[in-house]
Design brief:
- By secondary structure, the protein is mainly alpha-helical.
- The chain has one domain: Alpha-Beta Complex (Ferredoxin Thioredoxin Reductase), CATH 3.90.460.10.
- The chain has five helices and two strands; from the N terminus they run H-E-H-H-H-E-H.
- The termini are far apart.
């Protein structure tokens, strides 16, 4: 049975993405407000549409195309390589982590 409360869904999605972060070598954005906001958006889309589609991407109403927009989306790795963060800024890579360390140090 799927939880229908957005907070429950958010907790489930957060746990899944934490496991992903541990395996992937990426990190969550250190700004917890951004992370919380994105996870809430993912939970809302999960509740409304049945999948945790990235809240920063427009859906096409084509299941084959939209499947690529389930978080983590198909483009996040390339975006992180290019920019240090994915489009919605949920995930950051080593480049962004080093830049933050330089800014703080």
């Amino acid at each position: 049975m799927e939880p229908d409360d957005v907070h429950q869904l958010g907790a489930i999605i957060r746990a899944r993405l934490e496991r992903y972060v541990e395996r992937s070598g990426l990190k969550f954005n250190p700004n917890s407000e951004i992370v919380d906001h994105i996870i809430t958006g993912l939970a809302q889309r999960q509740q409304k549409l049945g999948r945790a589609y990235c809240p920063c991407r427009m859906l096409e109403n084509d299941p084959k195309i939209d499947l690529k927009k389930v978080c983590p989306c198909a483009w996040h790795r390339n975006e992180i390589l290019a920019d240090g963060t994915c489009h919605c800024q949920l995930f950051i890579g080593p480049k962004a982590t080093e830049a933050q360390g330089d800014a703080n140090g």
